């Protein structure tokens, strides 16, 4: 069905008075849109539960509803269009707020976010400059100050001095972790090749002349092999190329190997290659592990290079008195990425990068005559993006409405239930815990008990063959479980030291929804076991595996 095109439907008419209505007259409360609007406002969760049918429909079928490239010649009534949205889009979207949706970092939202985001949308402020955002600008600066204080914990006088200083910025608000990481490396690159005698700085003269002027053979970013792919994009954009992201091996706990890192630094020095930034990860995307940030800060100091921490996921762990010691050393970072649309429970499109030194961002400062004049407090002079929405308002709301203590409860609950789930997996002879939860992520796989007992004894060649079968089994279980729609885990591939660094496929679980209970997780395991025995494809793999080990 295409929007509003059923044959018996009246057409809306394109004329100026109707257009004028769209901009001025609200839909009446008893129109379809008005009704849906009220329902959503009153009970978001209930609405989603009743309307999002988790039936797996093939994407090619869904694509048929979105197949025409033609912009409709005639207007469509808003109410007709809304019906189309409900049938074709909403019904086939993903219920990311479901307590059984534990596969990704897209979080459930507190109810207050919906009415508050409407305020934001209605005001439609543009944070690029004060002329289009007024009070939103100081508010965004305060949000950046709040997160800065969470990380760096300076005193009140410090924030009195810097928070609203027009010459500086404590950070840059952006649409997510990717933009935040790119901004951090952009700043680090520009600060590494500043203006000098006979050189106007890399921002003006570019990479080639910067290398020539500073007599440098190349410039790299050092990060563990668990680093997020956004750094590859950053390297590409910054002109150093993706190969200049040097992936340092990790230890058995997915943390950067300090010995390997040190050796790499020594080698780079001999080759005349500069380090744009050393990057530590506070909560890797795949396993949730935290690099030894204090040690990384020491090495960055020795090397005299920028130290960035990617805390897109794990940053809010700092709210927890119990768990914040895991991030010890983050306060020594020159810059830190935090995603608000992950563990700050804000709708998609909110990320930040904070800088220890309020002058750091000057290296990417940009001015234009009609806006962003020098000395103005316009936020646009320190951001990669131009026009930007007032999303900081939602971060401000969440920080105030949930509060430090509220976030502490959320963080503690997430890590607590991850440990409970790990114990559950450990206690079940048919599952193998692959990575323990350090934060609220863990990975595991289904390995039938008799096989699990034999795995450590298998010769290398045979082990790899068994692992490939187990990979196929993990994929099949995940696929069938997702299609059944009760719960969702994601999967990833990890190299594991206990299997000669063989790369295996595992289930990946992210526990950040406070409504996820141990019972839900228990049922999830039971369902996986059931799939392994009852789904014909999965059962065939299991039978084959058990047969092959029985022969030995
Ligand atoms: C999610 C994530 C990112 C990327 O953030 P986006 O908001 O998806 O752009 C970067 N680094 C880490 C560690 C992440 O978990």
Would you give an account of this structure?
By secondary structure, this protein is of the alpha/beta class. It folds into 3 domains: 1-93, no CATH class; 127-401, 3-Layer(aba) Sandwich (Aspartate Aminotransferase, domain 2), CATH 3.40.640.10; 413-551, Aspartate Aminotransferase, domain 1 (Alpha-Beta Complex). The protein is 44% helix and 12% strand. The chain contains 18 helices and 11 strands. A 7-stranded mixed sheet has the order 1-7-6-5-4-2-3, sandwiched between helices. A 4-stranded antiparallel sheet has the order 8-9-11-10. A hairpin with a 5-residue loop joins strand 10 and strand 11 (502-510). The mean pLDDT is 91. The structure holds pyridoxal-5'-phosphate. Residues 105, 176-178, 181, 228, 230, 281, 283, 285, 310, 312-313, 339, 351 line the site of pyridoxal-5'-phosphate. Residues 105, 176-178, 181, 228, 230, 281, 283, 285, 310, 312-313, 339, 351 line the site of pyridoxal-5'-phosphate (PLP).
Helices, strands, pairings?
Layout: H1 16-24, H2 32-42, H3 44-51, H4 59-64, H5 78-89, H6 113-123, H7 136-152, H8 156-162, E1 171-174, H9 177-192, H10 202-214, E2 218-224, H11 230-237, E3 245-248, H12 258-271, E4 273-281, H13 293-303, E5 306-310, E6 335-339, E7 351-355, H14 392-427, E8 431-435, E9 441-446, H15 449-454, H16 460-484, E10 490-496, E11 502-510, H17 518-534, H18 536-551
Parallel strand pairs: 2-3, 2-4, 4-5, 5-6
Antiparallel strand pairs: 1-7, 6-7, 8-9, 9-11, 10-11
């Amino acid at each position: 069905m295409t929007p509003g095109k059923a044959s018996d439907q009246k057409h809306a008419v394109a004329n100026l008075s109707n257009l004028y209505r769209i901009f001025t007259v609200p839909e009446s409360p008893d129109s379809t849109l008005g009704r849906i609007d009220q329902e959503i406002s009153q009970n978001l969760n209930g609405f989603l539960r009743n309307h999002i049918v988790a039936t797996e429909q093939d994407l090619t079928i869904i694509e048929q509803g979105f197949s025409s490239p033609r912009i409709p010649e005639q207007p469509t009534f808003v109410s007709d269009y809304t019906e189309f949205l409900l049938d074709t889009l909403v019904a086939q979207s993903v219920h990311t707020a479901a307590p059984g949706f534990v596969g990704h970092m897209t979080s459930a939202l507190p109810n207050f976010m919906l009415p508050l985001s409407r305020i934001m949308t209605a005001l439609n402020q543009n944070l690029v400059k004060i002329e289009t955002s007024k009070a939103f600008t100081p508010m965004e600066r305060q949000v950046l100050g709040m997160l800065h204080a969470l990380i760096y914990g300076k005193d009140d006088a410090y924030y009195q001095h810097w928070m609203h200083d027009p010459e500086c910025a404590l950070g840059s608000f952006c649409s997510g972790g990717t933009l935040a990481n790119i901004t951090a490396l952009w700043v680090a690159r520009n600060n590494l090749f500043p203006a000098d005698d006979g050189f106007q700085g890399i921002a003006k003269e570019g990479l080639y002349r910067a290398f020539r002027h500073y007599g440098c053979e190349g410039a790299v970013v050092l990060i563990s092999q668990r680093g997020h792919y956004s750094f590859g994009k950053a390297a590409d954009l910054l002109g150093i190329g993706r190969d200049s992201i040097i992936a340092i091996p990790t230890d058995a706990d997915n943390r950067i190997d300090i010995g390997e890192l040190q050796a790499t630094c020594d080698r780079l020095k001999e080759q005349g290659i500069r380090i744009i930034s050393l990057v530590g990860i506070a909560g890797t995307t795949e396993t949730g592990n935290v690099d030894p940030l204090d040690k990384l800060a020491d090495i960055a100091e020795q090397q005299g290079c920028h130290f960035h921490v990617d805390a897109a996921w794990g940053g809010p762990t700092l709210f927890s008195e119990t768990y914040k010691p895991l991030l010890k050393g983050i306060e020594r970072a020159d810059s830190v990425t935090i995603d608000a649309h992950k563990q700050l429970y804000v709708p998609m499109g909110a990320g930040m990068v904070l800088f220890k030194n309020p002058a750091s961002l000057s290296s990417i400062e940009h001015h234009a005559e009609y806006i962003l004049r020098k000395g103005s407090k316009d936020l646009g002079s320190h951001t990669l993006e131009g026009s930007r929405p007032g999303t900081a308002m939602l971060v401000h709301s969440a920080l105030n409405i949930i509060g430090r203590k509220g976030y502490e409860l959320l963080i503690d609950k997430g890590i607590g239930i991850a440990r409970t789930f790990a114990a559950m997996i450990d206690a079940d002879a048919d599952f193998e815990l692959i990575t323990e939860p350090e934060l609220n992520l863990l990975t595991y796989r289904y390995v039938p008990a008799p096989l699990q007992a034999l795995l450590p004894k298998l010769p290398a060649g045979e082990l790899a063959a068994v692992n490939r079968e187990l990979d196929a089994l993990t994929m099949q279980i995940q696929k069938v479980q997702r299609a059944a729609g009760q719960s969702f885990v994601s999967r990833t591939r990890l190299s594991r030291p206990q299997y000669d660094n063989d790369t295996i496929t595992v289930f990946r679980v992210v526990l950040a929804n406070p409504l996820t209970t141990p019972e839900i997780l228990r049922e999830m395991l039971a369902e996986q076991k059931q799939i392994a025995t009852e789904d014909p494809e999965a059962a065939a793999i299991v039978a084959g595996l058990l047969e092959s080990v029985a022969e030995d």
